[in-house]
């Protein structure tokens, strides 16, 4: 079974949205708190989020065992409202590591009713563009009935590699572009095929408006765990061509995203989890090599949440 | 059981050498060719190499399954000449990935008679220095009877983190410094404790002479797979204070290492495997995201091997 053109088109449409990357909450014993995982996802879906991406980097993918990553996909499917036409949100499952492991994770997700996978850039320090292409060709070829989303984090991966991969694998349908350079994004997206793939601004809200002008039709988000309404308001503004509205949302997102980006993104995940903890949604704990934010940053996060009109008491209403 | 001071001192001494990172050869079916793995390692040990590091980046660690990585440690132990006092070379086993996986890999290596592990920098894009410290503290604490070698690849990990980790974990005994900055190396090594740890120049032969001047007493090497005599001659020159001899070896290594470093190290492993293939020692195949070198690079490698006086026919003598 391969992805028929109609389904591919449908999935490309489903990806043109906010791709929420849920956190993976931990309990006091350091194990994953699956109840909290479901709670965080359901709260987003209730708010109108339509795409949930377990096993992304905000989900601390590289700190999870293979068994935990499988369970994260299952938990996301369940929290997104079941499989098939009954689901309220689509699930895009992150896969990575060695090739057999990535393919196995994709098969497992498919068995849960997942229709799309996001492939992490291969780990390790040595990557050739031709080898990158081969890595994705093997995964997409082994899972021809799944939609495949590329996650670009190396500027050496250019339009020609993405276009060639799309030619080889019809099920490669979207690109999450994770390089903070909207000019490069524009060049790559337009040269690789702005309509052939759904383009996601891969560095979230702060890059979304600039990338939207050149063809992005969605963006990934960690902030959406905390303030789904804010991420969705940016999406709505961008979709409606309301640049002022988008930049109003951008300004609201900015202090939070700048905390996450500081010190080479040291606290990228822990800022999100601290905010969720302040809202009473899960513990702030992260696994190494992440680390809990400082007291000072905790105070800044409290101010940001207050500015957004979010508080623990409102959450418990 | 914890590492007693005498053993720690002995292991620190064992690390002050060329840390050979063997390739992981693949067969025509894409599976690991364990016979070739042993052959490449035995050839190095026969030449006088005294430290073998399976599951390093030259061994394509991130492209191996967990089972293959375990077997690579077993194969290295066997090829290095058995365990205990009968071993001809020490084995330093690379471990990484999620914490339970890293600890399990360390236990497995220990069960094979391995006395030291090298911990890969945690994968994934988000790393905080405090989280890096915690990651290594947990691993070193779970394996107190093994010597632990740090592998630094992020300049945010400074002397104070390394020193603190050494204070917390007496079994952290060495640092492979993988940043191409001999001035930073000197500052970090001297501030963290040039005698407390054995310092390895982590970017191989090209950084070894500069780092030696400020306290390095060994270096990691991928080139040693191909030309063990050349790597060992550099070691001997450095140990003997023969700067001219070291730079003569440096010049001999240079074209090979520059091919490996080109294009952000795209061909780092494939250059080594191509050279081994030309010597008839294993196939040139690499796994994605590495990719076989171009025809042009193959020609350059042939010239370098000829310049070193190595050829397939000599190998088969």
Reconstruct the topology from this structure.
The structure is a homodimer of 317-residue chains.
Chain A: H1 5-14, E1 18-20, H2 34-47, E2 51-52, H3 66-79, E3 90-95, H4 99-111, E4 116-119, H5 129-142, E5 147-152, H6 159-168, E6 172-177, H7 182-192, E7 198-201, H8 208-212, E8 218-221, H9 228-239, H10 243-265, H11 268-278, H12 295-307, H13 312-315
Parallel strand pairs in A: 1-8, 2-3, 3-4, 4-5, 5-6, 6-7, 7-8
Helix pairs in contact in A: 2-3, 3-4, 4-5, 5-6, 6-7, 9-10, 10-11, 10-12, 11-12
List its traits.
homodimer; 317 residues; alpha/beta; 8-stranded parallel beta sheet; 13 helices; globular
Structural description of this entry:
The structure is a homodimer of 317-residue chains. An eight-stranded parallel β-sheet of chain A has the order 1-8-7-6-5-4-3-2, with helices on both faces. By secondary structure, chain A is of the alpha/beta class. The N and C termini of chain A lie far apart (47 Å). At the A-B interface, α4, α5, α10 and α11 of A face α4, α5, α10 and α11 of B.
């Amino acid at each position: 079974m391969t992805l028929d053109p109609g389904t591919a088109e449908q999935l490309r449409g489903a990806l043109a949205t906010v791709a929420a990357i849920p956190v993976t909450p931990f309990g006091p014993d350091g194990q994953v708190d699956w109840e909290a995982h479901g709670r965080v996802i359901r709260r987003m879906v209730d708010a109108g989020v339509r795409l949930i991406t377990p096993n992304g980097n905000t989900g601390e993918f590289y700190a999870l065992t293979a068994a935990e990553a499988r369970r994260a996909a299952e938990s996301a499917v369940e929290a997104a409202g079941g499989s098939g036409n009954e689901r309220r949100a689509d699930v895009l499952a992150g896969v990575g590591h060695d090739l057999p492991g990535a393919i196995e994770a994709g098969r497992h997700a498919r068995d849960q009713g997942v229709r799309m996978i996001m492939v992490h850039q291969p780990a390790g320090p040595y990557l050739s563009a031709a080898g990158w292409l081969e890595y994705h060709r093997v995964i997409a070829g082994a899972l021809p009935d799944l939609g495949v989303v590329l996650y670009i984090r190396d500027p050496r991966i250019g339009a020609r590699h993405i276009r060639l991969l799309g030619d080889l694998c019809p099920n490669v349908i979207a690109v999450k572009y994770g390089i903070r350079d909207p000019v490069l994004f524009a060049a790559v997206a337009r040269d690789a095929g702005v309509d052939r793939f759904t383009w996601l601004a891969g560095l979230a809200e702060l890059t979304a408006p600039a990338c939207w002008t050149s063809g992005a039709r969605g963006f990934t988000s960690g902030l959406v765990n905390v303030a789904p309404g804010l991420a969705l308001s940016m999406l709505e503004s961008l979709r409606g061509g309301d640049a002022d509205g988008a930049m109003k949302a951008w300004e609201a997102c900015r202090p939070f995203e700048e905390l996450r980006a500081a010190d080479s993104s040291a606290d990228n995940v822990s800022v999100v989890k601290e905010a969720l903890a302040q809202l009473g949604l899960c513990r702030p704990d992260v696994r190494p090599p992440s680390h809990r934010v400082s007291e000072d940053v905790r105070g800044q996060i409290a101010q940001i949440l207050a500015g957004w009109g979010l508080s623990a008491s409102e959450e418990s209403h």
